[in-house]
Amino acid sequence: MMNIKEMDHTYIAPTYSRYNIVFEKGRGALLYDDSGREYIDLGAGIAVNIFGACDEPWQKAVTEQMGKLTHVSNLYYTEPDTRLAEELCRRTGMRKAFFGNSGAEANECAIKCARKYSFDRYGAGRHTVVTLKKSFHGRTLATLAATGQDEFHQYFGPFPEGFSYAEPDDFEDVKRICESESVCAVMMEMVQGEGGVHALSPHFVKQTADYCRAHDILLIDDEVQCGNGRTGTLYAYMQYGVLPDIMTTAKGIGGGLPIGICLMGDVCMDTLSKGTHGSTFGGNPVICAGALNILDRLDERLLKETADKGRYIREVLADTHGVVKTDGLGMMVGAELEKSADDTAAACMQQGVLVLTAHGRLRFLPPLTISFETLEKAMKIVKNVIENGVES
Ligand SMILES: Cc1ncc(COP(=O)(O)O)c(C=O)c1O
Known about the structure:
Strand order of the largest sheet: 4-12-11-10-7-5-6
CATH class of the largest domain: Alpha Beta
CATH architecture of the largest domain: 3-Layer(aba) Sandwich
Helix content: 25-40%
Low-confidence stretches: none
CATH superfamily of the largest domain: Type I PLP-dependent aspartate aminotransferase-like (Major domain)
Strand content: 15-25%
Bound molecules: pyridoxal-5'-phosphate
Shape: globular
Number of helices: 12
CATH topology of the largest domain: Aspartate Aminotransferase, domain 2
């Protein structure tokens, strides 16, 4: 009989390079493999498990809703998605929500909304979306095209046209593109994730937001990875002194189930009119009941704790020989190393700590609720691996 790894290799499309480990269960920041070995998780399923694995209050909210109503089509009203939309709007200053199933879909919705907003006001042609180099916006054709990394622009062409890429933190470059092309939106991650973890400069974000407002260009903020409390505020834009016209999020707000949300602000809240967009599972009652529970518990106390823990991670890394520099915001931290980040992550795994990598850097996205004690234990191991290079 084949084991799980052999079955995976036989039956699952080989799009992921997996570590040699089969996970069986988890609790909070701890995961257990099929031999019962414990790991401290500093990746949270790539910014998904913000309350850790198998979070009980979320499970309760989900299972209660499971017993009531699991799905009806979007032809009918339901309570969980409506309440989630209300709460998101109340806490963000945005005006309307569209629910989908993933970050990429949330960004597709944002791009469609920005293009239609411009079409409604100026007619066809003003459709370019400026994105930043090293950005990542998803794996659908349009969001791959939006992603400002050449390596994602292979194999699958033709890609949708109408995307131009500016240097991050270079307002003059954004302005140059806006002046030379017919631009409807500028789209950015306040903290770039897949690009290696880089927190954009506040001055750049503010200048770009002001320019966009003055020229009726929409500002789209992709908070799929950096949102939902991770940076120490509910959404990262709240630390940048700007209010985006469109904000997208996904990952952590779902508590471990798939969701993608596109929030639309004042100017474009009615742009996506009846029949212009949709999704079968969008606003699913079970997922939205869970997400509402997650959102309710992202309170001031947890946000402050997140900022403190993020500071602690940066401090440990700054005090580690072999770390060239750190970047990020809150509990979204990247570290450039003298050595290979991939080898270091593999060696940390051997020592029972899961860390991520992004663009040649180590990347830390722990559950926000990881205890200080567990975080300290994990960071001690990470520091030791970076300094003494334990064999992977
Ligand atoms: C900033 C950002 N946007 C979009 C996405 C795509 O999200 P999903 O994988 O849920 O489609 C990701 C995924 O990593 C992301 O980090």
